[in-house]
Amino acid sequence: DQQVKQNSPSLSVQEGRISILNCDYTNSMFDYFLWYKKYPAEGPTFLISISSIKDKNEDGRFTVFLNKSAKHLSLHIVPSQPGDSAVYFCADSNYQLIWGAGTKLIIKP
Amino acid sequence: DVKVTQSSRYLVKRTGEKVFLECVQDMDHENMFWYRQDPGLGLRLIYFSYDVKMKEKGDIPEGYSVSREKKERFSLILESASTNQTSMYLCASSSGGARRDGYTFGSGTRLTVV
Lengths: 109, 114
What we know:
Chain A is mainly beta and about 110 residues long. Helix content of chain A is about 0%, strand content about 55%. Helix content of chain B is about 0%, strand content about 50%.
């Protein structure tokens, strides 16, 4: 049974600091892990992904790290900005997307 | 530059009504999906379709049906709406090689059943 867990329902970070969002998974056969960002009353938008054969992928202020031995990945946002306040979902991409429950990130001014 | 369009942003329906949620994509994607999003539960897959007139049950299909008569359109039907179907409904589409880039979502329909 594939599971993706985001154990922190919410996270509050000061503007300009680093935001770290975490995700744990059980499936060892995934191709990619994806991160999505969702504002209220809007659909999720794709943010960044990481291949199972890599341990890091970077795109501007966003970096995703993959630790396969721990079955853990994290999304780093540096520096955090007010517009980053949103719900972030991680998803295991294999046959279908298996979603975590989401983490609500609040950036304080 | 709209790519996935959901027909309504907000809907209020009465218990027992038949409800149609429409989704249209203009990217010629083969795959289309219906999710519902509830706080603390993430996105749960209701139904999906990999081709015209083809449909597959997702994780929570009970109380729902779908229709895909044309490639660009995927409809979600609530046969007899109930209050526990109050939720945010999200439609998404993807091409065959979407594993790296993920899905494209519509803006969502907030459905309230009273």
